[in-house]
Specification:
The protein is an alpha+beta fold. It is built from 14 helices and 15 strands.
Length: 394
């Protein structure tokens, strides 16, 4: 009975989803919502006793039309084209629309992939505000195990802004390359026969420096953000998941447990393993919109938030690896800036995960997706156009 219902809901059997195919379509639709059934995770406990507000109908929103690349389209059609699992919109602090694909609910957790990095950036900012983490300090002051690695002469600021020099190729589709080895260290891919098991910190410690010096152009390499997770643990003296509970989940009043994937020794994949509900991620975005404040309480310092949403080096971005799809952007403290008139910023993860914050229009948008390909620049542009259209709706 359970198996037949699962098959009716998803079109395949549960035992078809394995560690070797969980990111591939069509299995990813289920897997992205049930990562904890495939990969070890650490719990991030929600605030006890808080009740989620009722779902807000999204029909009026999805019927709205906008123009992209000269073509008029509805939001509903765009959600289908971009393989959307959930879309949640907040305006002036209130939920105004919740779109859910079949079998998705207000309680469904979804993996953020690299949008996890932006959460790590906020947690790091809390420690900077506490005086426990110095952005100008050497990485090895906190994580001496990395002394012989590429990070041996890097500073925390280089890690925060993706300006380390790493001999690392972030090729998501190469089954035998650097990134595949990185995934295996995080238990995200099956172990290979005859290949020794690694931990995340062991993998990072093996990385070599690139040809240039640290502090050059923006260079997107996910291991930077796992180093940031290690920095957070060492500076705070807490496990990553526990620190997220005490400083973000419960102070912010998040309604549902989150989780983060961990490796063989329990090291959190802060660079891509966070899972949470759409509404709870929107609540994080609302805190960002309000400059680090929630219900009149400051969770992140004003200076850190200002640097996050409007700082960064424009020249480093223009010379970097993502300027082709976001030409006017910047990057600071693990957050992207659109470079538009409204000062919008966002977090993004592969396969179509987004947290978009538009301070001028007082709008926060979360979008979870199961795009078949890890990256697709056309869909990035289409999603950004979608968010602009939603933010400008009256």
């Amino acid at each position: 009975m359970i198996s037949s219902r699962f098959e009716r809901d998803y079109g395949f059997r549960r035992d078809n989803v394995r560690l070797g195919n969980w990111r591939d379509a069509p299995w990813n639709v289920w897997a992205f919502r049930h990562v904890h059934e495939l990969i070890p995770t650490a719990r991030i406990a929600a605030t006890p006793g808080l009740i989620e507000e009722p779902k807000v109908d999204a029909d009026a929103l999805t019927a709205h039309e906008f123009v992209h690349d000269g073509e008029r389209r509805t939001i509903a059609a765009t959600l289908r084209q971009t393989h959307t699992d959930a879309l949640t919109v907040m305006r002036t602090g209130r939920f105004v629309a919740d779109f859910h694909a079949p079998n998705f609910t207000l309680q469904s957790r979804h993996i953020l992939f690299s949008a996890s990095k932006s959460i790590a950036g906020l947690l790091a900012g809390m420690l900077v505000g506490d005086g426990l983490l110095d952005p100008d300090a050497p990485v090895v002051q906190y994580v001496p195990e990395l002394a012989e690695s590429a990070f041996g002469d890097a500073r925390v600021r280089h890690v925060l802004d993706m300006r380390t020099s790493l001999a690392f190729n972030e090729d998501y589709l190469d089954p035998m390359g650097d990134f595949a080895r990185y995934r295996r260290a995080g238990l995200l891919d099956p172990r290979l026969d005859g290949v020794p098991e690694e931990t995340v910190i062991g993998f990072i410690a093996s990385l070599r420096k690139g040809a240039s010096e640290h502090g050059g152009p923006f260079h997107y390499c996910s291991p930077n953000s796992d180093v940031l997770g290690l920095l957070i643990e060492r500076a705070s003296g807490e496990r990553y998941a526990d620190f997220a509970v005490t400083r973000l989940w419960q102070p912010l009043g998040l309604r549902h447990d989150g989780c983060v994937t961990v490796d063989l020794v329990g090291t959190a994949r802060s660079g891509g393993g966070l899972c949470m509900t759409a509404r709870d991620l929107a609540r994080v975005g609302e805190m960002v919109r309000l400059g680090g404040v929630v219900d009149g309480r400051r969770l992140v310092s004003a200076d850190w938030m200002k640097e996050t949403v409007s700082g960064g080096d424009a020249d480093a971005w223009r010379r970097g690896s993502f300027a082709d799809w976001l030409p006017n952007g910047k990057y600071s403290n693990k957050w992207y800036q659109v470079g538009n008139a409204s000062g919008a910023c966002f977090a993004i993860g592969i396969h179509g995960q987004w947290l978009y914050v538009d301070p001028l229009r007082e709008t926060v948008i979360v979008k979870f997706s199961s795009q078949p390909q890890p990256t697709d620049n056309y869909l990035k542009h289409l999603n950004l156009a979608l968010f602009e259209a939603i933010a400008t709706m009256t």
